[in-house]
Amino acid sequence: MRTDPLSEFRAGLAVILPATLAVIPFALILGAAAAQKGLSPLEVGLMSALVFAGGSQFVAVDLWTDPAPWLALGLAALLVNLRYVLMSASLAGTLKAFPRFWQFVTVFFLADETWAFAERRARQTPLTTPFLLGLIPVFYVNWVVWTVIGTLIGGSVRNPEAYGFDFAFTAIFIGLAAGFWKGPHTGMVMAASAVVSALTYLAIDGPWYVMTGAMAGMAAAVLVPEPAK
Question: What would the 3-class secondary structure string for the chain be?
Fold first, then answer.
């Protein structure tokens, strides 16, 4: 069945717009934190454009000193971003139908939000290039622009917790996770991931909890049988 490219593009744009707006406070906080560490708007813009991974960018800014501890920064970013290996693997079957160039582009610009919406879409209907063009570029440009703006106005963002901005990232992920809810089995997978991640966070310094939580969730999904339909 042929699909209308314009309709597919609009569908991608429609699903990503709420997440695009929701990450603005998160981007502003990152930019402000980077400015307080002495990074310029150009440096922050390049970091957002080349790394494009909010979690690892926050870790990098938190560890940033002059001179920068490159080895520690690299290891921390690697640990946080290893989750993208799992995300890319989950889309691998769907992306086989795309030209190799588009496979690379999609994986490079993959974010938690765009992965979640692409994965959900793929379960309903085959992914198309117009859908991905509506999904990915707007989110990417939005992130880069607002992190730079956060750097420029960083001095005025003194207490983001007072406005609830610090909860923006958590709220986004709760919304994304809820979209995959399939009943008690999903709840057990999420619970296993949450418990192991929390325990790791309390026991081990660094972002190891990201990977241990992901691995625990995968193990629970495999080991706990889904109820018969």
Answer: CCCCHHHHHHHHHHHHHHHHHHCHHHHHHHHHHHHHCCCCHHHHHHHHHHCCCHHHHHHHHHHCCCCCCHHHHHHHHHHHHCHHHHHHHHHHHHHCCCCHHHHHHHHHCCCHHHHHHHHHHHHHCCCCHHHHHHHHHHHHHHHHHHHHHHHHCHHHCCCHHHHCHHHHHHHHHHHHHHCCCCCHHHHHHHHHHHHHHHHHHHHCCCCHHHHHHHHHHHHHHHHCCCCCC
For 62-120, the pLDDT digits (tens) are 888 777 777 877 777 777 787 788 788 888 888 888 888 888 888 888 888 888 888 88
pTM comes to: 0.77
- Domain ranges within the chain, ordered by starting residue: 5-180, 182-224
